[in-house]
Amino acid sequence: MSAATYQLKTTAPSIRKRLFQVPGLWVGGGLIFTFVFCAIFAGVISPYGPDERDGKNEPPSSAHWLGTDTNEKDVLTRVIYGSRLSLIASITSISCAVVVGVGLGILAGYRGGRTDMFIMRLIDIWLSFPSLLIAFLVIAAMRPGWTAVILAVALINVPVFARQIRAEMLSLKHAAYVEAAIAAGASPWYLVWFVFLPAVSGTIWVLATLGLGHAILEVAGLSFLGIAGDPSNAEWGSMLVEAKGELHVTIWPALAPGIAISLTILGFNLFGDGLRELLNRRTRSF
To answer: Residue 281 — pLDDT band, cuts 50, 70, 90?
Structure first.
């Protein structure tokens, strides 16, 4: 038996043991999987089409499990289809925030000096703007639509990644193996791709997962304010806009997307916390 095979067999039980000791990872992952599954297979599992009409403000029944809204559309179907836009917009915005924020954090931490000071002062100014003001500035430069929503949410989350990655880089660049790589003549690009990014990848995954929970809420909030454009789209924030005027008649069109938003945020938060705990346990075990 090779040394690699032996090490794999001896470490596999400990990995499984750590996984089962983090229940939040499983619960959060289950919730995330449910909504991702609904987003991918919405056309298969939804009982009606997203714009199909069948009775106005009907209560929950065997035909409409969550009732219908003021536009005669099935609420459950709209919630299922709404997961598509909400998740796509959130994942896209956080991906953009990761690219920009991690790049700024690595650059500031590695170069130090005036570069670090300039980037950090820029981030401080960035953080001084309220989230809504950033969104309104984006709308002033663009027109309402999902592109504006994605860009606004990305800009709101960039400082989170930049500051955290920069803090890790300040200690990482003085590590013995980094100094050895520099002494061996490693180029900056080699250090970034093969030294720094692998070292901070765990932090990036945790921040991205937790950031997705915030992004879901931010996307829904901006959509609720009308920044997403067409309010007739099947999206959770837009559904809340349509339902707010009919709360005195029925609560289901507002309650269903609200619960979907809450459960999705809970799923990402639990998964992010569980992932952080799992990585901390793995670090302590070495």
So the answer is: low
Residue 169 has pLDDT above 60, yes or no: yes
- How many residues are there in the chain? 286
Q: What pLDDT digit, counting tens, does each position of 183-239 carry? A: 888 888 888 888 899 999 999 999 999 999 999 999 999 988 888 767 677 889 988
Whether this prediction's pTM lies above 0.85 is answered by yes
21 is written with which tokens? 């000791």
Q: Are 97 and 157 in contact (CB under 8 A)?
A: yes
Tell me how far apart the alpha carbons of residues 246 and 74 are, in angstroms, rounded to a whole number.
15
- In SS3 terms, the chain reads as CCHHHHHHHHHHHHHHHHHHCCHHHHHHHHHHHHHHHHHHCHHHHCCCCCCCECCCCCCCCCCCCCCECCCCEEHHHHHHHHHHHHHHHHHHHHHHHHHHHHHHHHHHHHHCHHHHHHHHHHHHHHHHCCHHHHHHHHHHHCCCCHHHHHHHHHHHHHHHHHHHHHHHHHHHCCCHHHHHHHHCCCCHHHHHHHHHHHHHHHHHHHHHHHHHHHHHHHHHHHHHCCCCCCCCCCCHHHHHHHHHCCCCCCCHHHHHHHHHHHHHHHHHHHHHHHHHHHHHHHHHHC
Closest alpha carbon to 162 in 92, 108, 93? 108
The answer, yes or no, to whether residue 160 has pLDDT greater than 60, is yes
67: tokens are 């009732």
pLDDT: which is higher, 9 or 273: 273
Nearest to 38 by CA among 47, 26, 25, 28: 47
CA–CA distance, 51 with 18 (Å, rounded to integer): 46
Q: Is the pLDDT of residue 5 over 50?
A: no
